[in-house]
Amino acid sequence: MVLVYILWGEFAMGDEDNAGFVMVKDSNGNDKKIAVDEDGFLLNPKDWCPGFVDAVAKQEAVETLTDEHWKIINYLRDYFTKFDSCPPIRMLVKNTGTELKKIYQLFPTGPAKGACRLAGAPKPTGCV
Amino acid sequence: MKPKIREILLKSPSGKAEEWLAKQKNIEWANGLNPRPAKDSLVAEIGETKNESPELFVEKFKGLRQSKAFVDFMDSCTRCGICIDKCHFFISTGDVNNSPVGRANLVRKLYKKGNRLKPSSVDLKKIFSYYNQCTECRRCSVFCPQGIDQAEITRNVREVLTEMGMIPEYVAATLSQVYKTGNNMGLNPKAIASAVEFVRDEMTEETGKEIDIPLDRPKADFLFIPSSADIMVNNDTLKGYAKVMYALKKDWTISSATSEAANFGTFANERILMEFGDKVVDEAEKKGVKEVVWGECGHGWRTANNYVRYRLAEKGISLQHVHQVTSKAIERGQITVDKNKNDDLFNYHDPCNLARGGNLVNEPRKILSAVVRETVEAEFTKDKTFCCGAGGGLLADEKDWNESRAWAGWPAVYYSWKTGAHTMVSPCAIDKAQFPYVIGYHKVDMQMKGLMDLVGFAIEV
Fold first, then answer.
1. Nearest CA in chain A to B394
2. B406 in a structural domain
3. What is the extent of the structural domain holding B432?
4. What is the mean pLDDT of chain B?
């Protein structure tokens, strides 16, 4: 079992004084500190690694990460890397072959907030 | 519980009313409520500098005397109290500071001091908090015997606060995205193209027809301004636009540089409002269009109708709302619709800024009654419509704030629910995000649709 430390608001950083860090394991199994905002979204989406998902999944009410979760997260991550944005929800449904109801079961906090946060997207802005 | 209208809180099926009301016994509680303030770096991204000094507030506040509306509204209040229970934030919180007259009095007492106003009498934290619990909905102004518009007072005070860098993080983050990409959601041209192509393919599958959503065509007769939320979330609204433009054989395009009907500058200051409005004017001129067509957005239409329209007119370009286009087309028989496609009872919710700031009350009703089987009006409707509780830049999704906006939105949902309708219809992107949340929080058996969504379902192409 990977030991994960989650440290919130422990380290002040510039004027982002209320932001925090998440301790994650990188792909080589080393500890890595990733900066997140007050709502737990990555401050820099490029910092994303699978260890981030392991570290914060429970905060999005995902108790155990299954292959079905990873299928959604990987799709969102690929899309985000390409377009700097999450896809329309219906595109996610269609291209992963996962019904919306099922997506809400997998990610109880919803696709836009929960799943996209785990995939490393920043907090959404505008009328959503 | 006084006044009587507050009893609607107890009618929420959420089972959370007692707990919510218990919190209100703590006076300090409401004082601390507001969306989280933006940090220095974010404030810099929207071209302002953070300086939270009461001295600066006093200096800028004195400048508000140049606004005739502000001065009139400060001077003419008789403290009759009629406005108090007309405000959804007062109904939900029971806090007089959260009523129109109470909110105004927070600054009226400073105004009355005139030149003797000292920085030591300014409670900036309190002003920031209560001036960010006003959704600028203007419902109070309809009931005030003096016609005092608290939204105008709020806009004046926020003008000062924004120039001091005191602005909610959610509003500043959204403004910053518009500066970077031209839209609230921060979508780059590739992301917009990908989403639009997907929606276009879906329409082809559904209808068997090649209904285009033209994007970034260099020349066209009509420039269409959707909400960026239509592109990413409310795809049925986008389909409604495309089907109407297709049926009318319009030569139109969306531009990825200005794919935003909203204008969050309305919630910050006039400089930003005008800069965003001018972006659309410049794009329309560059593309040589004859007309700009505005998509479904509440406050954005108020800005378009009262500012962008006149800037466009200088260039010989006209402006219409998509509801004006659609309503005329239905009236003239240029499009055919099948009501049976929307076989249910629908309640139209007037967005504040269409009904009280945009002269759009009749067209949406004409359209709705043409495209659905049955409609019903709520008790408070047209200019007396209740706010969704998240306008004015208060749609922030934040742990401490979400409960507050769920209750601020309850009056609107409660009166719609009471009609027996199963679907609330609103042509406002903030409503489309806020109402499903309020409906879910209060466990009401209702759903939310955009008006153009229903047009899209009913239109025969």
1. A127
2. yes
3. 336-460
4. 97
Residue with structure tokens 């820099």? Answer: A44
Is the previous residue joined to A124 through a cis bond, with omega within 30 degrees of 0? no
In chain B, the residue whose alpha carbon lies closest to the alpha carbon of A124 is: B185
The crossing angle, in degrees rounded to 10, of helices B322-331 and B235-247 is 50
State the pairing for strand pair A31-36/A20-25: antiparallel
Contact B293, B211 (CB under 8 A): no
Pick the CATH number of A67-118 from 1.10.8.60, 1.10.10.370, 3.20.20.80, 3.40.50.10190: 1.10.10.370
Are B189 and B288 in a shared domain? Answer: yes
Query: What is the spatial distance between Cα B187 and Cα A77, in angstroms, rounded to a whole number?
Result: 16
Strands B318-321 vs B252-254: parallel, antiparallel or unpaired: unpaired
Query: Residue B232 and residue A82: Cβ atoms within 8 Å?
Result: no
d(CA B130, CA B202): 45
Task: State whether A128 and B229 contact (CB < 8 Å).
Answer: yes
* pLDDT tens per residue across span A32-91: 999 999 999 999 999 999 999 999 999 999 999 999 999 999 999 999 999 999 999 999
Q: Is the pLDDT of residue B369 over 70?
A: yes
Contact between B337 and B330 under an 8 Å Cβ cutoff? The reply is yes
Q: Residue A19: its pLDDT value, please?
A: 67
At B362, phi and psi to the nearest 5? -85, -40
The radius of gyration of chain B's CA atoms, rounded to the nearest angstrom, is: 22
The domain total for chain B is: 3
Interchain contact B398–A (C-beta under 8 A): yes
Task: Indicate the domain borders of chain A.
Answer: 6-60, 67-118
CA B311 from chain center: how many Å? 22
Q: Please, which residues 174-213 of chain B have a Cβ atom closer than 8 Å to chain A?
A: 174, 176-177, 183-188, 190-191, 194-195, 198-199, 202
Residue B38 in any domain: the answer is no
Predicted pLDDT of residue B130: 96
For the entire predicted model, the pTM comes to: 0.95
Give the Cα separation of B315 and A16 in Å (integer).
44
Digit-coded pLDDT (tens) for B27-38: 778 777 899 999
What pLDDT shows up at residue B365? Answer: 98
pLDDT score recorded for residue B1: 77
Q: Between B188, B194, B430, which is nearest A127 by CB?
A: B430
| Residues B91, B190 within the same domain | no
Name the token pair of B186. 């921060």
Residue A7: pLDDT band with limits 50, 70, 90: very low
Of A17, A91, A112, the CB nearest to B198: A91
Contact assessment for residue B194 and residue A86, using Cβ atoms and an 8 Å cutoff: no
Indicate whether B201 and B131 sit together in one domain. Answer: no
Is A6's pLDDT higher than 70? no
Contact B46, B179 (CB under 8 A): yes
Mean pLDDT to the nearest integer, B297-317: 98
Structure tokens at B449: 């649709």
Q: How many CA atoms lie within 13 A of B393 on its CB side?
A: 29
- For residue B215, the cross-strand partners are B254
